[in-house]
Every structure is written in C-alpha cells, then in structure tokens.
Amino acid sequence: MMKDSLRQFIDNAADCNFISADAVKALTGEVLRDGITSRLEVETLLAVDRIVEADESWGVALTRLVVDFVVWKRQPHGVVSNDDALWLATVLEVSGPSRNAMTIAYAILDEAGYVDVALLDFIMRGRQRARMSLAAA
Q1: Mean predicted confidence (pLDDT) in 49-73
Q2: Less packed terminus of the chain by CB within 10 Å, N or C?
Q3: What is the pTM of this model?
C-alpha cells in the first residue's frame, strides 16, 4: 500500500510534468522522511522518473532513497540478494537504462558489501548500450 502523501507527490509531478527542487525537498523531508518502505514505492518513483522532467536534485534524492532501501532496509543489511537484484535490474531496465537508473545501480555497487550478479549484468548491458550509441553517432 502506498502512502497518500506519496500518491499526491506523484499526481502533482504528473500534472506539472516536472519535479521541482521544492518538491524534492518535500519528498525527502516530509513524504518519505523515513525513506522508502516497499518495492511498490521504488517502482512508482522510477516510473515517474521515466516520464517527467526534473530539477537536478531529483536524481540525487532518488538515488539515495533507492540505495537506502535496497542496501540497508532489505535483509540481510548490506547485501543485495539474487531476488532483489533481479527485481531491481528489471525495474531499472524498463525503457532502457536511463542516467538515473545507471547512477542508482553504480551507487548500490559502491555501497553494498555484496551485490548479486544480476545487477552487475544490468550495469554491463547499460555500458554496452552507451558504447553502441556513441559508435552509432
């Protein structure tokens, strides 16, 4: 179940087609003060990330929220299990690996003590697509 305040944040972002710096401050300071609490919240925020423009503070906040949830709120702490890595790689790869999706994956790799190979595969696919895009240009 999603909090009403998060649902309102998402509705406002969709209506404005933009996430402002003030909206990011409200998200991190009030709406998700205690962080993300479910996979549904991660999936919803990543979906919003793909469809709206945002202030530069959005990517930093989104990354921190997702990393804290995946690395520190899931059990065991500091470990990204196969189940979590497969789920996250799938969610991050929707519509292709975006800049924020890649940043999240790298941040998790930096912070976790162990990351399952499924997330590493996502990173490698994203890097390969970026190289192919550069070669095609």
Answers
A1: 97
A2: C
A3: 0.93
